[in-house]
Amino acid sequence: MKRQFQILLLATSIVSVTGSMHAQVSIVNWGGNYVSGMVDLDRQGTAGSNFGNVGGTVTNDSRRLTTFSDSTTFNPSASYTGTSSAFYGGIQVIRYDNSSSPATGQQRIENNSSTDRIQFRTDLSSGTGSGEAQGLVVWKKSDFLSLNSTTSTLSSLSITLDTTTNLSEARWVVQNGSTYYISQTTFTASATLSNPSSTNWAVYDPASEIKFTGSSFSAVSLSDVSSVGVYFAGNSLTWTSATVGGLNFAISQFSASAVSSPVPEPASYAFFGGLAVLGLAGARRFRSRRVKSANFPASSA
Question: For 55, what's the count of Cα atoms within 13 Å in the CB-facing half-sphere?
């Protein structure tokens, strides 16, 4: 009985150190009242012209590009705070057949009472025209609400879209380890992905090219999630005026959950080693007592 009690105590001690081995937790919860006025995102991008023929008929398209970065935040650094406030990303707006008037737009946190929005609006500086736009917003593990020191398997994603004018497609984006993946599943309205393994994924490299053009999708085990987010695109835009006809895309809520698998700290390994030594010593004493009892049987009356 005493030995069984020792084993139970050992097991209880291990659980107390490691905690719950598989717990579903919220890792991102963006949404709410962040600003008291319109606040521009910090990285507004740069204009470029005569970089090639992406669309249209001549080779003098223009572009405004905010290069994707997962090391420099996309969100405002001033007058902006709240849960899951830090995010990263990039966006490009291309205007066909016009090199002198690159696309501009609004990239900002839009004040809307208690449901503020991350807004991307792709206006022109003047005139009319046609073109396209693609963008990406992600939340990183270093800013997750939980799981900073654990591996984690993605369990759900959810997004609420307030504005989707001229949106061609949106897709889920997940970084697993160091590799970004983009979902085969697409949506053009508020959506939830309650089982990420239910869709296939393609490797995606937004640092090289924000626009996704791949077609090779397969199942992926998202067991070491490092970033989560959304890709959005208006692939066929026609501006009938500088502010009409472009992509207008606004996020009012983004959330994600994952199942944790804690990795023991070095101190935990030392603790386990100490318990093993104690257990081995106890076992040796137990065997020694049994041997002595066998060699010296109790005398009869």
Answer: 15
Kindly state the DSSP code that residue 224 receives in the 8-state scheme.
S
CB atoms within 10 A of CB 114: 8
The string of pLDDT tens digits covering residues 48-90 is 777 778 888 887 899 999 999 999 999 999 999 999 999 999 9
Q: What is the pLDDT of residues 226-250, one digit of tens each?
A: 999 999 999 999 999 999 999 999 9
Degrees (nearest 5) of the Cα angle 36, 42, 48? 135
Within 10 angstroms of residue 283's Cβ, the number of other Cβ atoms is: 12
Angstrom distances, CA of residue 69 to CA of 62, 76, 183, 206: 21, 14, 20, 8
The DSSP annotation for 111-159 comes to P-TTS-EEEEE--BSSS-EEEEEEEEEEEEGGG-SS-TTEEEEEEEEEE
Q: Which amino acid is at 107?
A: Q
More confident call, 209 vs 3: 209
| Alpha-carbon span 161 to 190, nearest angstrom | 5
Strand pairing partners for 106? Answer: 121
